[in-house]
C-alpha cells in the first residue's frame, strides 16, 4: 500500500492497491486485444498467402508476380485483397466451406468478384487495416472471408479452446452469436467440454463433463442426428453451459468426420436464434466439420483410445456363442457413410437364406440384406451406433431377407456396439418355442402369476422363476407345508383347500395371507388341480399362485374412498345450504327502488340455478350522509361458502369506507387492501360510482370489471375501460377515475358477467349483445332490467346481477 502526503493540508493519504490492480487489469485487457487483432491479421495473411500459392500454380509465375497479380485484381474489382483471396481459395478448393459460402454457386449467396476480371463499376467498398470490409457505414465480412479466416485460425490453433475462440471471433460473432461451445462425444455417449468462448468465468469448469442421459442442448442434436434450433433453452426443458447468464436460444450442429459424430458445436444467442437462409445453415455445418477435425486431433494427441484392435475384435466375435458379425464402414468421396462391409462372420453365424459364410464375407450389408434399409430397421441402427457410439439393444428386431423373391422374416434379439470405427453386431434368432415361452413369461409377469407342479409320489416340487420372488424363498414349499407360511387366521381355509385337492382329488382354490421371511405380507390366491393315473391314484398336483395384493389394497382404498366421498358430499351440501341462506339474506333477488335527487336506482339479481355453484355477486345502492349516492356492483371469484362470506366482507367494507367522503378510485384502493391483507386473499372485480346531485356528475372507477353501459337518446355505448386491476391481485394498486355527466333521460347499467357471458363466445361480443339489447328497449327502468334478465343468453350457470340508474 502506498503512503502519500496530501499537499493541501499535510495529511497523509493512503492510496489503495485497488487502483494499481485496475491499471494492471486494463493493461492486460489492452495487450489481449492487441494479441487478438494480431492473430486475426495473421489468419487473414494466411488466406492471402494461400491464394497467392493458387495463382502461382495456375499462372505458372513466381511468388512476387502472384502477389502483384492478386493486388491488381483486387484493385480492379474494388474489393479487399483478403476478400478476393478467400474467393480464389474457395474456387480452387471446391470443398464444404466453398459450398457453404456459395463460391461459384447460383443459390442466392452474396455476389463476389470474378477472379478472371471483375467490373470496376460494381461498387467500391472501403477496406480496413484488419481486412474487414466496410459497406454503408457498417463493417462486415463476406461469408467466404469469414469461413476461410476461421479455417486458417482453426488449422493454426493448438487445441479446441483456441478453435472455439477462432470460430466465435471470425465466423459466428459477425452473425450475432455471443458464445460458442465445442463438445467431444465419448464412446459411452457422454459429453466433454473441449473448448468454450464467450461464457462467464467459471462456466467451463462447471460443465467440463456431462454424463450420458442428461437432457442438454448438445444431447438433443445427438438424438435427432442433425442441426437443431432451440428458441428458448429453459422453455425447451434443457440445460447447458451458460444457462444462468445466457438463457436465450441455441443452434446446435453435429461435428462429424468420416460418418462418425466426434463432437457437437453449440452456438449461443442472447435471444431466440434469428431465422437464417439455407446458405447460413450450411456455413454453421461447415464450421462444425472444422471443429470435428479439431476434436479428432485432440483425441489422437491424447492417450491411446480404449478399445480392441481389428484382430482382437475378430477374436472376440469368434469367442461368442451367438451369431456375430464385424462391420467396417464404407464411405463416399465426401466422407459420408454409405454402407458397411461384412468383414468377418463367426462360426455360429447362419445366413437366413442359406448362403455360406465365405460368399458373404467382404460383401456390403445392403447388398447382402437390402431389406435392412427399411425405415427403422437394422441399417439405421448400425448407422446410428457407428455415428454416436451409443450401444444399441433390441429384444425383438425383424430381420428380413429375400429367398427366391419371397421375403422371409425372422425375429431375433440384436445387440450393436462400436469399437473404434468398427461395429460389432450380435443377434440371436428366436424360434417358435422360445417365442411362446417368452410370451408366457411376460403374461405371468403382467398377471403376477407363478406356476408350480408337485410330484406326490417322489415328493419333488417344481416352481417357475417368478414364484421364488413371490415367496421370497430359495427352495420350493410343498403344498402340505403351506399353512406354516400363512397368517394363523387363514389356516382353516388352507386346510380345507388341501383336503379338497389331496384327499378328495378335486380342483380347488382359496385366498390367504402369505408371511414371507422378510416379514412382508402378501395377499395370495392359490389354484390347484390333481393329476390322476389311469387307476385314479393321485400322482401330481399342478397349479398357480397369484399375487392379489394390489387388488386387495385397491378394494380397501376404494371402500375408504367411498366413505370419504359420502362424508365430503354431506359436508358440501351443508356448506352450500349455508352459503345459499347467507346469499339470500344479504342479496335478495329484488331490492326496493331508490329514489333520490331525480335519480332512480333499481336492482335485479338472479342466483345460480345449481346450488353448489352459489357465487359471490354483490351490489349496493345507498344515499351517503354527504348527500352523494353510492352505487356499486362486484363479483367474487369462485363459488361456495368462501365466496358468499367474501361478498359480505367487501360489500360492507365498501359501504363503511364510503362514509369517509373519499372518491371511487381511493375507495377501490382501500378495498384492494382489505381483499389482499384482511380477507384471506379474496379476488374480486368491482365497479364503484359516486353521484353528485348538485352537478349531476357520476365519478366512477373499475377493478378488472366489465365497463358500464350508458343509454342516451336511444343510443347505447360502453364507458371507457379505465385502468384498474382485480381486487386482491396485488398488495398495492391504484385505480383510475372517470367522470360522466348524466343528462335527463339517461340510463346507466352496471352488471356482472353472469348476465352476458356465454361459453365459446368472445367476451367483447357478449358485451355488444347487451349494448344492442339496451338500445332496442324504451320502457321504464324496472321493465328494462326485467327484460334484460329474461332475454339473457348466458350459459355459464353463474349468478347474474344488474343495477340500473335513470335520471328523470
From TrEMBL:
Keywords: Hydrolase. Residues 28-89 form the ANTAR domain. The keyword Hydrolase applies. Residues 99-130 are annotated as: Disordered. GO terms for molecular function: phosphatase activity; RNA binding. InterPro entries: ANTAR, Bact_Sigma-Reg, PAS-like_dom_sf, PPM-type-like_dom_sf, PPM-type_phosphatase-like_dom. Pfam families: ANTAR, SpoIIE. It comes from the Bacteria. Residues 99-114 have a biased composition (Basic and acidic residues). This is SpoIIE family protein phosphatase.
Amino acid at each position: 500500500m502506498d503512503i502519500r502526503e496530501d499537499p493541501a493540508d499535510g495529511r497523509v493519504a493512503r492510496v489503495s492497491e485497488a487502483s494499481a490492480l485496475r491499471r494492471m487489469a486494463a493493461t492486460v485487457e489492452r495487450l489481449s486485444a492487441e494479441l487478438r487483432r494480431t492473430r486475426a491479421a495473421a489468419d487473414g495473411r494466411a488466406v492471402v498467402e494461400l491464394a497467392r500459392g493458387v495463382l502461382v500454380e495456375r499462372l505458372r509465375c513466381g511468388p512476387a508476380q502472384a502477389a502483384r497479380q492478386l493486388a491488381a485484381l483486387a484493385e480492379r474489382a474494388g474489393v479487399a485483397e483478403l476478400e478476393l483471396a478467400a474467393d480464389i481459395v474457395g474456387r480452387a478448393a471446391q470443398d464444404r466451406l466453398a459450398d457453404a459460402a456459395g463460391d461459384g454457386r447460383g443459390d442466392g449467396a452474396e455476389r463476389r468478384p470474378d477472379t478472371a476480371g471483375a467490373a470496376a463499376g460494381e461498387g467500391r467498398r472501403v477496406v480496413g487495416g484488419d481486412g474487414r470490409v466496410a459497406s454503408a457505414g457498417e463493417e462486415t465480412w463476406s461469408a467466404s472471408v469469414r469461413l476461410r479466416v476461421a479455417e486458417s485460425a482453426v488449422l493454426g490453433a493448438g487445441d479446441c479452446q483456441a478453435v472455439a475462440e477462432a470460430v466465435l471471433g471470425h465466423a459466428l460473432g459477425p452473425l450475432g452469436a455471443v458464445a460458442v461451445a465445442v463438445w467431444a462425444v465419448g464412446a459411452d455417449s457422454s459429453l466433454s467440454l473441449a473448448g468454450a468462448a464467450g461464457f462467464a468465468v467459471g462456466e467451463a469448469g462447471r460443465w467440463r463433463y456431462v454424463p450420458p442421459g442428461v437432457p442438454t442442448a448438445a444431447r438433443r442434436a445427438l438424438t435427432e442426428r442433425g442441426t437443431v434450433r432451440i428458441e428458448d433453452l429453459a422453455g425447451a426443458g434443457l440445460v447447458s453451459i451458460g444457462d444462468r447468464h445466457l438463457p436465450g436460444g441455441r443452434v446446435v450442429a453435429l461435428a462429424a468426420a468420416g460418418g462418425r459424430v466426434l463432437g457437437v458445436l453449440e452456438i449461443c444467442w442472447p435471444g431466440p436464434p434469428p431465422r437464417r437462409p439455407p446458405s447460413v445453415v450450411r456455413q454453421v455445418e461447415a464450421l462444425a466439420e472444422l471443429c470435428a477435425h479439431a476434436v479428432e486431433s485432440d483425441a489422437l494427441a491424447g492417450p491411446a483410445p480404449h478399445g480392441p484392435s481389428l484382430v482382437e475384435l475378430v477374436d472376440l466375435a469368434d469367442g461368442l456363442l451367438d451369431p456375430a458379425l464385424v462391420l467396417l464402414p464404407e464411405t463416399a468421396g465426401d466422407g459420408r457413410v454409405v454402407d458397411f462391409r461384412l468383414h468377418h462372420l463367426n462360426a455360429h453365424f447362419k445366413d437366413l437364406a442359406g448362403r455360406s459364410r465365405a460368399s458373404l464375407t467382404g460383401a456390403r450389408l445392403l447388398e447382402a440384406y437390402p431389406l435392412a434399409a427399411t425405415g427403422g430397421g437394422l441399417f439405421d441402427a448400425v448407422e446410428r451406433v457407428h455415428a454416436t457410439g451409443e450401444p444399441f439393444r433390441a429384444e425383438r428386431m425383424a430381420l428380413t431377407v429375400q429367398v427366391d423373391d419371397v421375403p422371409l422374416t425372422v425375429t431375433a434379439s440384436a445387440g450393436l456396439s462400436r469399437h473404434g470405427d468398427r461395429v460389432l453386431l450380435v443377434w440371436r434368432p428366436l424360434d417358435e418355442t422360445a417365442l411362446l415361452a417368452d410370451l408366457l413369461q411376460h403374461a405371468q409377469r403382467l398377471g403376477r402369476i407363478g406356476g408350480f407342479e408337485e410330484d406326490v409320489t417322489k415328493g419333488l416340487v417344481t416352481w417357475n422363476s417368478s414364484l421364488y420372488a413371490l415367496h421370497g424363498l430359495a427352495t420350493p414349499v410343498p403344498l402340505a407345508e403351506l399353512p406354516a407360511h400363512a397368517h394363523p387366521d387363514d389356516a382353516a381355509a388352507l386346510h380345507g383347500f388341501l383336503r379338497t385337492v389331496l384327499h378328495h382329488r378335486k380342483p380347488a382354490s382359496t385366498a390367504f395371507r402369505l408371511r414371507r421371511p422378510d416379514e412382508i405380507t402378501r395377499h395370495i390366491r392359490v389354484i390347484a388341480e390333481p393329476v390322476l393315473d389311469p387307476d385314479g391314484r393321485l400322482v401330481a398336483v399342478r397349479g398357480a399362485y397369484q399375487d392379489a395384493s394390489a387388488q386387495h389394497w385397491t378394494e380397501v382404498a376404494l371402500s375408504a374412498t367411498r366413505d370419504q366421498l359420502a362424508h365430503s358430499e354431506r359436508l358440501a351440501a351443508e356448506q352450500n345450504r349455508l352459503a345459499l341462506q347467507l346469499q339470500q339474506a344479504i342479496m335478495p333477488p329484488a331490492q326496493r327502488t331508490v329514489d333520490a335527487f331525480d335519480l332512480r336506482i333499481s336492482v335485479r339479481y338472479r342466483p345460480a340455478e345449481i346450488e353448489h355453484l352459489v357465487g359471490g355477486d354483490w351490489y349496493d345502492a345507498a344515499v351517503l350522509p354527504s348527500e352523494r349516492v353510492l352505487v356499486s356492483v362486484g363479483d367474487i371469484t369462485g363459488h361456495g361458502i368462501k365466496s358468499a362470506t367474501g361478498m359480505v366482507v367487501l360489500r360492507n367494507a365498501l359501504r363503511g369506507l364510503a362514509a369517509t367522503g373519499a372518491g371511487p378510485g381511493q375507495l377501490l384502493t382501500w378495498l384492494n387492501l382489505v381483499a389482499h391483507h384482511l380477507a384471506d386473499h379474496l379476488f374480486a372485480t368491482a365497479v364503484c360510482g359516486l353521484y353528485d346531485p348538485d352537478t349531476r356528475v357520476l365519478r366512477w372507477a373499475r377493478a378488472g370489471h366489465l365497463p358500464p353501459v350508458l343509454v342516451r337518446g336511444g343510443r347505447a355505448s360502453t364507458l371507457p375501460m379505465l385502468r384498474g386491476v382485480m381486487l386482491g391481485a396485488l398488495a398495492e394498486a391504484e385505480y383510475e377515475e372517470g367522470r360522466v355527466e348524466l343528462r335527463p333521460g339517461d340510463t346507466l347499467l352496471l352488471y356482472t358477467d353472469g348476465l352476458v357471458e356465454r361459453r365459446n363466445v368472445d367476451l367483447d361480443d357478449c358485451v355488444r349483445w347487451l349494448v344492442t339489447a339496451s338500445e332496442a328497449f324504451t320502457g321504464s327502468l324496472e321493465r328494462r332490467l326485467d327484460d334484460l334478465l329474461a332475454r339473457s343468453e348466458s350459459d355459464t350457470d353463474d349468478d347474474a346481477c344488474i343495477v340500473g340508474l335513470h335520471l328523470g
